Amino acid sequence: MVRLLDIKRTYSDGGMRLLLLADSKEDTLPTLLSDIDGLSGAGGVTPGSIVITPALDVCIMANDGTWGPWL
Predict the structure, then answer these.
(1) CB contact at 8 A, 71 and 57
(2) Helix, strand, or coil here: 14?
(3) Where does the chain show beta strands of DSSP type E?
(4) Which of 11, 26, 57, 60 is the most exposed place for a label (fewest CB within 10 A)?
């Protein structure tokens, strides 16, 4: 499960740059705001968004809107 930790920036097109917490690296990472509990709307997760896990694995969304590799 992926949970919202912080909204870093909102954009006029409805997109948001987010800081998220995933239970593990096997979780499906969201690309739409509606995929995240507590958020709604037609916008998407924007490049620069970050997902971390309790084990301190990190994944960053690339400029093309896809999630990069886990670091």
Answers:
(1) yes
(2) coil
(3) 2-10, 16-22, 50-52, 58-60
(4) 26
Question: Which tokens go with 23?
Answer: 């239970």
pLDDT tens across the length of the chain (71 residues): 999 999 999 998 889 999 999 999 999 999 999 999 888 888 999 999 999 999 999 999 999 999 999 99
Cα separation, 41 vs 71, whole angstroms: 30
Token pair 């917490």: residue: 21
Residues 6 or more apart from 19 whose CB is under 8 A from it? 4, 5, 6, 7, 8, 49, 50, 52
CA dist., res. 55 & res. 34, Å (int): 26
Q: What is the pTM of this model?
A: 0.92
